[in-house]
């Protein structure tokens, strides 16, 4: 019988999250995003900001803690409500940095030759 109370979390994960501050004075959330990016940098975890969120990798517990800290930070900066969209990937067959996933697809596309166009 499985001991659910002591079931461990995965040793590592890649999480892609989009923290959405709700009820800011204007439509821009640049200051909130910048605050979260400062937190990401201070965390020491591997991360990458993109146009619709941030990808971060590390142990499950550290990644979840960091996303929780991002909520706390933005709340402390005066935002009363936050919604976060989150996708998490784990694997047990090998260790793979999130940038390797992108590089793999780029190498496949490069094999298409010079006629392939890059979207902008």
UniProtKB/TrEMBL annotation:
Coiled coil feature spans: none
Entry's Gene Ontology cellular component terms: cytosol
Gene3D superfamilies for this protein: 3.30.70.930
One Pfam family of this chain: Thiamine_BP
InterPro entries in alphabetical order: MTH1187/YkoF-like, Thiamine_BP, UPF0045_domain
Superkingdom of source: Eukaryota
Domain Thiamine-binding protein: 15-106
NCBIfam families found in the cross-reference section: MTH1187 family thiamine-binding protein
Protein family: Belongs to the UPF0045 family.
The name this protein goes by in its record: Thiamine-binding protein domain-containing protein
Species per Swiss-Prot/TrEMBL record: Venustampulla echinocandica
């Amino acid at each position: 019988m499985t001991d659910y109370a002591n079931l461990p979390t995965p040793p590592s994960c890649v999480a892609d999250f989009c923290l959405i501050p709700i009820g800011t004075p204007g439509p821009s959330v640049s200051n909130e995003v910048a605050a979260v990016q400062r937190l990401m940098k201070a965390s020491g975890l591997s991360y990458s900001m993109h146009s619709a969120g941030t990808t971060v990798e590390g142990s499950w517990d550290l990644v979840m803690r960091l996303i929780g800290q991002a909520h706390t930070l933005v709340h402390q900066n005066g935002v009363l409500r936050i919604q976060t969209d989150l996708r998490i990937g784990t694997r047990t067959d090998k260790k793979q940095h999130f940038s390797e996933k992108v590089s793999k697809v780029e190498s496949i596309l490069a094999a298409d030759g010079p006629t392939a166009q890059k979207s902008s």
